[in-house]
Amino acid sequence: MTSLDLLSAAFIVLIGLGLLGIVILFIIDISQTKDAVRHNYPVVGRFRSIFSKLGEFFRQYFFAMDREEMPFNRAERDWVDRAAKGEGNTIAFGSTKNLKVPGTYIFVNCAFPTLDEEAVDMQPVQIGPYCPYPYNAPCFFNVSGMSYGALSTPAVKALSHGARMAGCWLNTGEGGLSPYHLEGGCDIVMQIGTAKYGVRDAEGKLSDDKLREVAAHDQVKMFELKMSQGAKPGKGGILPGIKVTETIARIRGIPVGEASISPNRHLEIKTTRDMLDMIEHIRSVTGKPVGVKAVIGGSEWLEEMCVEIHKRGMESGPDFITVDSGDGGSGAAPMPLMDNVGLVIQEALPLVSDILHKYGLRNRVRIIASGKLITPSEVAWAIATGADFVNSGRGFMFSLGCIQAMRCNKNTCPTGVTTHNPRLQKGLDPEDKAVKVANYCKNLVEEVQTISHSCGVLRARLLGRRHVRVVKDSGHSVPMNLLYPRPEILPEYKDQAEAMQPLDE
Predict the structure, then answer these.
(1) What 3 state SS string does 386-420 have?
(2) Distance between CA 457 and CA 147 in Å, rounded?
(3) I need a surface site. Which of 79, 156, 335, 428 has the fewest CB within 10 A?
(4) What is the pTM of this model?
């Protein structure tokens, strides 16, 4: 038999197998009743599901404009990518951003901007003045809470080393403190979620011994009590069972392979008084600053908290509040919560800052802003609005190589950032990505300072609401200090407010 005969025979066999496959799929589709489209249009109906799954990828690369995508558009992702690679971040031929969209913020440049030689380097800010071990936080931009479990081993390693090189802190997320967080030598914020992972006893309650064990690490600078998060306010953390490996189970203190679902709130905390009691307890056990993380909906509890702090004394308050945005995060969450519950950071941040100011506590409680703030303009806006620090999760995920594949909860992340599949993890080299993490942080900080110098201030934390204008429905902008005017400090709290150390000293 000639080679041509062999090729002909192989071709006929392949055609036959293909036809046989189509017949089998036809029989399967026409026989099932779970999918009406496949039943009514056998075989062909399968393409609907295929195209639906591939649609987000085609839109990302071929159809969406640079500023159209959600949750992050191509222009934002490209900026992070260039910053992480240490490449030039200049653009040509004008902005592609529509500056007349309502809500757009525009920085007010000064006629006589700050000269480079006049500028002042970023200054450390103290958190926890009443603690035995206060934290002088060196950087205003830091890694947000993303747990080991939600993130892969190489991803956490890269973040740890990169954060140390950049001089910023790394928040553990609610999954507990792992050796990979400590490996790089960076400053660490230990987050305590509702399940108390990493600091729980056999019954799942907060363990003072475990708290002391974690606090004994000099790298652990603060503790963050997570009340709620933007992706799922009113619901606990979700880690699918497929991602609960032996190592993760050991660190968290949970069974291997079972879904890790946290309670939807701390069982011990029913009121603001309970919350302050818990903060004081953790602070007394660890000796380190303790704050809370919350997505803001109703604000009554914040005012109740402020009144209670004044009753107990300034030292009783949280050392910081992390204000999370209500439009989602990096982990798995129900769509109704991610889409529709909780205020976005643009509304929540000025609200929290103003309440603390009104009660004379703004110089006592540091504010950390979190929620889709990944570019210099967004970070500069947050600082001008009232934040002392900004945390980013997905910005640092992009610096690790994330391509917004939207597979964080599937264990199939194609870049190795959020998967525990060893084959997929091999594509993420911690040593290489650590450099990109550091580059991203350093370049963002530098460009925030550039914005502040354009506004005529010596350093970024001197930015205020007067330096920002917000576009209204008419297409015209108004000063943000008129849109969100600072309230007057209540008379009964003025003396305490004046006694506190100013924010930027």
Answers:
(1) CCCEEEECHHHHHHCCCCCCCCCCCCCCCCCCCCC
(2) 37
(3) 335
(4) 0.86
